[in-house]
Design brief:
Number of helices: 9
Helix content: 25-40%
Structural class: alpha+beta
Number of strands: 11
Largest sheet: 6 strands, mixed
Radius of gyration: 23 Å
Distance between the termini: 71 Å
Order of helices and strands: HEHHEEHEEEEEEEEHHHHH
Strand content: 5-15%
Oligomer: single chain
Length: 322
Amino acid sequence: MSHPTHGAPHASAACQAALGAAGRAWHVIPLRPNSKIPAFPNHPADACDRTDPWCCAGHVDWETRATTDPDRIRRGWARIPYGVGIACGPSHLVVIDLDTPKPDDRRPPQWQIPGVVDGHDVFATVCEQAGQPIPLDTYTVATPTGGTHLYYRHPDHGPTLRNTTGGRPGSLGWKIDTRAGGGQVVAAGTTINGRTYRVVRDVDPAPLPGWLAERLTPRPLPPERPARVNLATDRRGRYLHKAVTEQVGIVRNAAEGGRNHTLYMSAQVLGQLVAGGSLTAEDVTALLTQAALDTGLTAHETARTIASGLRAGTRRPRSVAA
């Protein structure tokens, strides 16, 4: 089904592609020219100094900045030949990326099946093993390297699906990535190094089949004991307890879009006490990790941000007198 682009006749091809995606209610972001990397923000959360106008109240990531506003899109793509990315989470999309192997890729033993040579074959096999038809009647984009992006509507109910990486736990299989909440894909019409992503089936995205949604649903983490810090009950212990509780509360109450930066700042504050010998890095990491995961941050970004904040805190040791 065709959708209006709302673009002026002289608009660049990339701008037209962004407007076309926005016309489908898909949230778009600019990508660095000839790259799949978001152009903004141009700094990670742990290096945010709040000089970026979007970050004056805390770090704002690319997913939060994604837009469907035609005026913002026209301004954003007016001068620089940015590529176009689609933020899958706010666009309510799940994109299955069927990739082709690189020359040095080796098939894992479980996929050394006659006739299985790439992500397309693996996906067909996964569908066959599930007793399901291959769900190809959906919006489809061909990638410049011979891959395929299959777009589906995210389920209206159930947990939010996240990204998966082919061959890792939770994925559909070798050479199949998925992009959903927290992920983005390169939009059709974007050219990278002279090669263009192009639409090969222009229909509305089909609903993600229920059996695939079930396969892609993140498995719950095993139950863990609540992280605790045992502190003395004297004046020094009460001060440290208050400092820890305050920072954990700040992380738990951080606004969406600023959670990573808030986590970094709290890790930095408590890292000063770690450097001064008043707290241990293990205790601080356990408490902040639990708080961050509860807000929806991923385990990977949580671990990286806390470690970075603790390192920054060690540059200004602070001890608490007894």
